[in-house]
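Inputs:
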Amino acid sequence: MLIAGETDYRRILKRELESRCQQNARYSLRAFARDLALPASRLSEVLNGKQGLSRERASGIATTLGFSASESDVFCDLVESQHARGRVNRELAKVRLEKNRINSSFHDLQLDAFQAVSDWYHFALIQLISLPEFKNDPAWISKALGISAVEARDAMERLERLKLIEVKRGKVTRLQEFVAVNEQTPSSAIRKFHRQVLERAMLALDNQPLEERSFSAIFVPIDKQRMVEAKRWIKNFRRRFCRKLDAGDANNSVYCLSVQFFNIKEAQK
DNA sequence: TTCACTCTACAATGAGACCG
DNA sequence: CGGTCTCATTGTAGAGTGAA
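Outputs:
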C-alpha cells in the first residue's frame, strides 16, 4: 500500500477496504473492522467522518496494514493533524507533513512508476500511440482499450510525467521504449500486471472471434535445471516475433502476446 | 469540557429451511 | 414452485465511560 501524495487518512482506509471488497465479495466493513481490531461501529464513524482516531490507534492500524516505517509516520501524522488533543500537537503534525511533502516529489514519481507498471493499459497505450489512427482524446483511448476515460486521461498524464511520451500542441510522440520493469520494480506491481493481462486474455477468449485470436497450451516434462535456458528461448522468441510483426507502416491494431511457462505440479502451492 | 472509545440495540437484507 | 419463517450478518445510531 502506497500512501504517498495522499492527504486524507480516511481515503487511505476506504481505498484499502474497497480493494479487499474487490478481492473478496463477502468482505465488509465489519470484516475490515475485525481485521483492524476495531469495533465495527467505530470504523463506521471514522470512515464517515463522524469521529477520529488516536495516534496510538492509527499506529496499530498502520502496522496491521503492513505500512513501512515512513508510511506509518505519514499515516499517523495525517490522523494527528486532525484529531490530536491540543492545538500544538495538531500544528506539529501539520509541520511534519509539510516537511514530508516537500521531500516527496521523488515518491510521487515512484508512485507513478508503480501505477504505470502495475496497470496493463500503460504498456498498451505506449504501443497505441504509434498507430497512424491514434487520437489524443480520452474518449477515443477509452474506446480503443476498453478502459474508462478518466483512466485514459490519467495514464496519458502519467506517461508524460515519466517522460515516456511528449505532448506538444496536442500531438503525441513516444520518447522511449517502456523499460519500467527492472529489479527495483515491486513484485506486487508485476503480479498485479500479469493478473490483469490474464483477465484481458479471458475476456478475449470469450468475446473475440477465432480468426482474430490465437490461444494454445502445451504440457512438457522438463529438467528444472534447464529453466534458465527456457527463459532465454522465450525471450528470444518474443523479440523476433515482435520485430517481424512491428515492421511496416500498415499497423492498425495493438495485440498482446502473453507467455506463461510454469511448474504445473507446484502452481497451487 | 471534549472526544476517543465501548457497548447495546435497531432496521434492513439475504440465505436457508420448511411447508403446502 | 412460491410463501413464510428463522437466523445470521450488515451498517448505523445513541448512550455511557474515561482520559486528557
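Remarks. Residues 90 and 113 of chain A are 32 Å apart (CA to CA). Chain A has twelve helices and two strands.
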